[in-house]
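Reading a protein record of the kind used here takes little practice once its layout is understood. The fold follows as a row of integers, each naming the local backbone shape at the matching residue. With these conventions in mind, the following record can be read line by line:

_____
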Amino acid sequence: MNKRALSILAIMLALMLLAGCSNAPATEPTPSEAAGNPEATLTIKSADSSITLTWEDIKELPTYEGPGGRISSVGHVTPPTTFKGITIEDLCNLVGGLSEENSVQIMAKDGYGMTFSYDQIVSGDYDTYDPSDGENKPFSGKLWTVVVYQEEGNPISTEKDGPLRLAILGTNKIVTDGHWWIKWVTSIEVKQSEEKWTLNLEGEMSEEIDSGSFETCAASSCHGNSWTDEEGQTWQGVPLWILVGRVDDDNNHEGIAFNDTVAEAGYNINLIANDGYNITLESWQVARNNEIFLAYLLNDELLLEKYWPLRLVGLDLEKPNWIGTVETIEVNMP
């Protein structure tokens, strides 16, 4: 067992002792600690275990401190500053730890949530950007996913986005996508990952979207859309035009990134199933249309095998074009 794991184990034992020792002398928080909202709690759970940490418990855990910044969906860069908190990996160790078969769902008090993959939590597998201009820039160092409670040595206020928020921190200054930076974090859940799959996007650029990234994008707090059909079934997924915008020109990030000018000029969009079956739509049908989308959930459950992992559905889509088992989208530019 490594030193970090031993440290966490010791803290867990200490927390249990404190719970049974009501006469232990209280330690007065410093003014800066008290400002962080001592009533805050953080719940961590897995299939086999659950723990709720108080503000004082949180302050006793091993910390990570480092710089991190974020870039918004419209390309606005919040420059890196120094944050302090506890890594998600260490927090998950309190309820049994992570394996490659796990993903981690992190929720905020306002219902916003994101699902993180094992590789993101353990290896820091995130897109990174240059703080000076927001351009995509590879990062050679390690990135840590951290629940933070201090920024530049000061508590993160409840009014702003604290007392606990998520941050992606490195060993030097780098910027990551802002949608990962969840405000007002209240819970962490270690979940069993579903079978992994990949959606291939081909156009002016190429991109592969893994299942975890698609699920995150499909959240109502991100780009997700849902629709209840005439049979009362509710489908949930991502509008097709959002995905097309990732590869219709060399801008796959800034803003929604959909190129209206090229769409007006006209092009075909081919959707191809894993058995080779395909359909073709026109750009004018898809442009800025939230009523045609790739669904990955039906009535809050994963799709049946005959449609899994993705099915094209929507109010503005004729039933013969409801193609299932979609694995590739080809954007045939003029």
Summary: The longest helix spans residues 3-19. The chain is about 20% helix and 35% strand. The first strand starts at residue 41 and ends at 45.
